[in-house]
Amino acid sequence: MEIPFLFISLIEILQFITHRGSLDIDDLILNLFGIFIGYLLYPAFKRIFQLY
After folding, report:
1. What is the phi-psi region of residue 21: left when phi exceeds 0, alpha when psi lies from -120 to 50, beta otherwise?
2. Is residue 38 within 8 Å of 27, Cβ to Cβ?
3. 20: which residues sit within 8 A by CB, 6+ positions away?
4. Count of domains in the chain?
5. Hey, is 1 helix, strand or coil?
6. Coil, helix or strand for 40?
7. Which one of 12, 22, 46, 49 is least enclosed by Cβ atoms within 10 Å?
8. 46: part of which helix (H) or strand (E)?
9. Whole-prediction pTM value?
10. Which residue range is the domain that position 21 belongs to?
């Protein structure tokens, strides 16, 4: 779970440095929440949509 956190943090820091977008802690929290939900739902979708 630390790789997505580092990647999202890097994007937020780059936004701050380049003055593109805005550095916002809410973006970090919501993106991590979305990744967490994706990790939880992936096994269910994998069983439902098995490709042969």
Report:
1. left
2. no
3. 14
4. 1
5. coil
6. helix
7. 49
8. helix 25-48
9. 0.70
10. 2-48
Nearest to 28 by CA among 1, 2, 8: 8
What is the spatial distance between Cα 20 and Cα 50, in angstroms, rounded to a whole number?
40
* Residue in the block written with tokens 């979708």: 45
3 state DSSP class of 24: coil
Cα 19 to Cα 7: distance, rounded to the nearest angstrom? 18
Q: Is the dihedral of CA 52, 41, 13, 24 positive or negative?
A: positive
pLDDT tens digits along 4-51: 889 999 998 999 899 888 888 898 899 999 999 999 999 888 888 876
What's the number of CA atoms in the CB half-sphere (13 Å) around residue 40? 6
